[in-house]
Design a protein that fits this description.
The protein is of the alpha/beta class. The protein has helices at residues 34-40, 124-135, 172-183, 244-253, 269-280, 299-307, 365-370, 410-427, 433-449, 456-473; strands at residues 16-21, 24-29, 47-48, 55-56, 69-72, 75-79, 90-92, 111-120, 140-143, 187-188, 191-197, 202-208, 211-222, 226-228, 241-243, 261-265, 284-290, 312-314, 316-322, 329-334, 347-349, 353-356, 360-362, 374-377, 382-385, 398-400.
Amino acid sequence: MRITEHPLLSFQRKRVIHFTFNGGPLEAYEGETIAAALHAAGIKVLSRSITYSRPRGFFCAIGKCASCMMNVNGVPNVKTCVTLVEEGMVVESQHKGVLKPFTGPKKSHISHMKTQVAVIGAGPAGLNAAVTAHAYGASVLVIDENPHAGGQLVKQTHKFFGSSRERAGTRGTEIAKILYREAESFVMLQAAVVGHYNDRGHRLVLVKDGTLAELEAEKVIVATGASENMLLFENNDLPGVYGAGAVQTLMNVYGIVPGNSVLMVGAGNVGLIVSYQLLQAGVKVVGVVEALPRIGGYHVHAAKVRRCGVPIYTSTSILKALGEEYVTGAVTVSLDKDWNHIPGTERKFDVDTICLAVGLSPSIEFFCQAGCRIAHIPELGGNTPVHSPAMETTVKGMYAAGDAAGIGEANTAMMEGKIAALSCVKALGLSTLETEKESKESYEELRLLRSGSFGERARQGKERVFAIMEELHE
C-alpha cells in the first residue's frame, strides 16, 4: 500500500516503529498516524458501530469525525487519524461501545499562559494570520490538534492560481513548508482547544499530552477549517468510503495509496484534482460521477483527467456501495432533470475505494460555544459565523478566517487570515502606516480573487453575511 515512486513527491521514511493492534505485532514509520500505519498494513476495519456492529474505518483523516476512534494504551476514544504511532503502543478496536476502564495516570496540574493573539487552527488561514500578526509585533500562539501544520496545504501537490504576491505558481505543499518555517516558534501541534470563557477577555482551555492548560488572549482568530460532507447512499458507512481530504492525506502526506481502484464522486475542483493525484500515485480511477448536468470545476483540471482516459459521467450519482466488511464495488445511476433516478441506467464498477468530493461544511463548533451569531448561508457551505469585512464576529475580539468563515479556495483563506490578523494588530494599537497600506492591498486582493464566474457564489455569500452584520449594528 506504500508508494515507492511518485512524479512530484519524495517520501523520506524515518525509523521503524513497532506496535500492536488487537494483540498482533505491526510495524510503522516514525511520523505516521496510527490510522495511516494500519491502512498501510491493509487493515481498513478499525472498530464497529454500537447498535448493529457494522464495520467502521476512518473517513476524514483530520480528527473531524468519530470513525477512527480506538483504544490506545488503555485510553478509549482516541482519534487515531491525528495521533502519531509510538514505539510499544498498544492499539485495540472498540466494539459495540464496550470500553475498558482507564487505569492510566490522572494529571490534574493546569498551566497558565498568556498571548495577545491566539490562533486556533494551523491551516492556510491560521498560519498566514499568525505570521502577519507576529510581523507587526504581536505575541502569537497557534494551536492545532493535528500532528502536521499546514491544514489542506500539506496535501495540495498542484500549483496555485492567483497572483505572484500570494505565491501563485507554487505547490500547496511548498506553501505549507514556507508558512510553517515562519511560524514554527509559536505553533503548538497535537493540542486541542476544548473550552472558551469570556470572563477575562478570552480565556481558552487547551488539552496537550493529556494535561489541561489555560490560555488568556486579548484577541482570538478562529481558523478551524471545514469538515467533509457525506452523501446519502446504501452502505455509505463501509470502510473504503473516504472524503477526498482523507485520500489526499494518505497519498500526499504519508505516501500510502487508499486502494487499487477508485470511483470519484464529484466533478468540482477537488474531485478533479484528487482524481489526477490518484493517477500520479499509480491508482486506477474508473470514473468521475457528477450529479449536476455539467462539470463544476475548472476545465483545465477536467482536461487533464480526461487525457488520462478517465471518463466523467454528468447527471449521474452513486446508488450504493457493495461489500460486507469493506468496499468491493459501487453502483451508479443516471439522473433526470428533476434529480430522480432513471430506472435501467445502473452501472456497476469493480472498485475498492469510493472517494467523496461533494463539498465541505464550515467547522463552527467553537463559534457556537463562544456565543457567536450563526447564519445559514448556502453559498458558503451552510451554517457560518456572521462576521464583518474585517473578519470580526459578533463576539468582540473574536475573528473568523478561512473555511471556518465560509467555504472558499486556499488563496482566499490565506487572504482572510491576513485581514483578520491586521484587524487584530489595529485593535491592539500596533498599527502603522505600513499596516494600513497592507490592509487596503489585502482587501483589494481578496476582491480580485472572488471576481469572475467561479468566485460569484462565494462573493454572494459574503455579501449576505456582511449585510446581516450591518443589520445587527443598526
